[in-house]
């Protein structure tokens, strides 16, 4: 029986978009070596953890019904991993996790990874473990390739599976329109489709990352727009041909460039400024090719505790 009213801890965590995603060949362990540049965007999830007699996960917000609440939820993996690290029984007392989704589900924006990163940070506080950011980052990498970036945020160069990170200089704010698709895509399926396309007829590969890093440092969205590239885009479009129309519609609406976000099917459109993003979003909504259209900006910070602020 809990004798005191438990204090909940809420963490806000951002979505990501890959500005550059170069995918190497499949490795023996089933993963692909990546060279990628992540940017954290202002679409966020709020994850609240609280000690409870019974453990469980509840999910609210957009696409909540598509999120698993069982052991396959990545936030749950975070609970188990951190409990193991701390030599704690995660069921004594239990942990209740509430997730309020603002990040598209199964959209290639690391929504599940973001929830795992948020759970790690929140439980570190709830259980008073005082594990430092570096070790949390290592634990994050064991949960999934994108989880360390969700923790770190900002703009970063990722290598390995995407989990080895170096911060990238990007002092300027970039403005994005995010086009959500009607259904999600499975990340392993998109990687598999890329392997298949490459075996069958080859596909173009994105170039070196350095010019994009220079464009980020310059802060000029026009320069950046010319250099956005994603090797997974051809695979996502092959599985979901309608994405070609979505990408075209965003550029026709006035965006500088459009790109499939990660493994898709969400599309991200870079705009010249905040006003232009609002105009592009309105026009893209009217084109009827997306389920929902959002405006976002980046870079924003990674997972952070917001218990005292108002959680959404
Ligand atoms: O690391 P994570 O569990 O998020 O990856 C999900 C799936 O995406 C992997 O099982 C793998 O099929 C694919 N993947 C990959 N190469 C990467 C990252 C993910 O093939 N670098």
From TrEMBL:
The protein's annotated catalytic reaction(s) are: 4-CDP-2-C-methyl-D-erythritol + ATP = 4-CDP-2-C-methyl-D-erythritol 2-phosphate + ADP + H(+)
* InterPro entries registered for this protein in UniProt: GHMP_kinase_C_dom, GHMP_kinase_C_sf, GHMP_kinase_N_dom, IspE, Ribosomal_Su5_D2-typ_SF, Ribsml_uS5_D2-typ_fold_subgr
Give the domain of life: Bacteria
Q: In which pathway does it act?
A: Isoprenoid biosynthesis; isopentenyl diphosphate biosynthesis via DXP pathway; isopentenyl diphosphate from 1-deoxy-D-xylulose 5-phosphate: step 3/6
Which top EC class is named for this enzyme in its record?
A: transferase
Task: Write out the GO MF terms.
Answer: kinase activity
Q: Provide the coiled-coil residue spans.
A: none
UniProt KW keywords: ATP-binding, Isoprene biosynthesis, Kinase, Nucleotide-binding, Transferase
Q: Where is the active site?
A: 16, 146
Q: Which residues form the GHMP kinase N-terminal domain?
A: 73-154
Give residues annotated as binding ATP.
Answer: 104-114
The task this protein performs is described as: Catalyzes the phosphorylation of the position 2 hydroxy group of 4-diphosphocytidyl-2C-methyl-D-erythritol.
NCBIfam families linked to this entry: ispE, PRK03188.1
Matches recorded under PANTHER family: 4-DIPHOSPHOCYTIDYL-2-C-METHYL-D-ERYTHRITOL KINASE, CHLOROPLASTIC
What is the similarity comment for this entry? Belongs to the GHMP kinase family. IspE subfamily.
Please state what the protein is called.
4-diphosphocytidyl-2-C-methyl-D-erythritol kinase
Organism of this sequence:
Saccharopolyspora halophila
> Taxonomic classification, please?
Bacteria, Bacillati, Actinomycetota, Actinomycetes, Pseudonocardiales
